[in-house]
Target: Ketosteroid isomerase-related protein
Amino acid sequence: MTEPRDGTHPFLRALDRLTAASEVGDEAAFAHLFSPDATIWQSTVQRETSVPEFVRILRILDRTVTELQYVDRRVDVFESGAVEQHVLEGTRMSDRMRVRLQACVVVRFDERGLIRELREYIDSGEAAEFVSRHRSNTGT
Model:
């Protein structure tokens, strides 16, 4: 089931709040959108992580990238969730280079409208390029 993209569907509003919290590094608002038993799977680590672990990644991102912005967001809603494709852009603090990562997330919501499952697929080539440039500039 695909809902109209007018932003009125509760799943669309939840994803908008998730994006806004991520862009400004608001960890509390970000975590508040997940159910207590939510699971998160990321293609870059190939395992499930918890909400606190995912928030830690947000914290690292906030400390390493400025001007963080989700662009080209495309969302399709289905009965129990939504699929979002987006591009994450920002400026890496270490060398002022622009960062661009293409991603797709599949999100399932519980009956209260909280995220119960998030599966994140990131372009591995772009992620590897970001990591290698970041490491070469920080000496790690």
Remarks:
- The longest strand covers residues 65-78.
- Residues 10-24 form the longest helix (15 residues).
- Residues 5 and 75 are 8 Å apart (CA to CA).
- DSSP finds four helices and six strands in the chain.
